[in-house]
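Fill in residues.
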């Protein structure tokens, strides 16, 4: 839905005419995702594994001009798509960051309100990489911050990642809970789900 939002931004993440690359944004009602995230004016939002930036654009509108969005991806061409979408939508509060989410993140301690990982964790081994990723996110999260993970349900479908790559909510909890996180929100999105954790 194309809507004029805060400060003249056009908030229609996911419909940029230049959009390229994988994104789950259009697979479900993304407004349900953001309703669950409850972003506030002035929040700092980290889109980890942002792809072409559909969630980043939506978040940028929700946090308003006083907020910030960090779009982080290992693919420079995806970050270029984020920048194009930001210009198309009149969004000025997004910064792009190139890097590997399995390594140290270039953000200060206690600086992020919400970190979203949308359909990016299934691309790696959760057992091998998950604890380090969650620990590093814990470092950059404010005390009141949250981690939000959006993944495909661990069910066989004709599309999406193969079953053996999919991650269940229970598997995510098994990584997050020993690190001091607890589940705060679960949203059924049809083929996908959103689970949020707080410290």
């Amino acid at each position: 839905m194309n809507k004029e939002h805060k400060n003249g931004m056009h908030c229609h993440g996911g419909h940029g005419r230049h959009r390229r690359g994988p994104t789950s944004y259009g697979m479900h009602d993304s407004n349900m995702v953001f309703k669950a995230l409850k972003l506030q004016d002035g929040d700092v939002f980290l889109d980890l594994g942002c792809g072409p930036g559909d969630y980043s654009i939506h978040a940028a509108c929700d946090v308003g001009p006083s907020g910030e969005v960090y779009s982080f991806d290992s693919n420079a061409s995806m970050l270029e798509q984020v920048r194009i979408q930001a210009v198309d939508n009149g969004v000025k509060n997004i910064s792009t960051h190139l890097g590997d989410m399995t390594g140290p993140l270039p953000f200060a301690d206690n600086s992020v309100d919400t970190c979203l990982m949308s359909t990016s964790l299934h691309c790696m081994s959760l057992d091998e990489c998950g604890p380090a990723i969650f620990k590093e996110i814990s470092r950059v999260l404010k005390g009141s911050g949250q981690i939000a993970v959006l993944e495909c349900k661990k069910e066989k479908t004709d599309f999406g990642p193969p079953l053996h790559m999919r991650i269940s909510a229970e598997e995510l909890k098994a990584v997050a809970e020993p690190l001091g996180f607890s589940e705060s929100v679960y949203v059924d999105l049809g083929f996908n789900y959103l689970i949020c954790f707080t410290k």
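The chain has one domain: 3-198.
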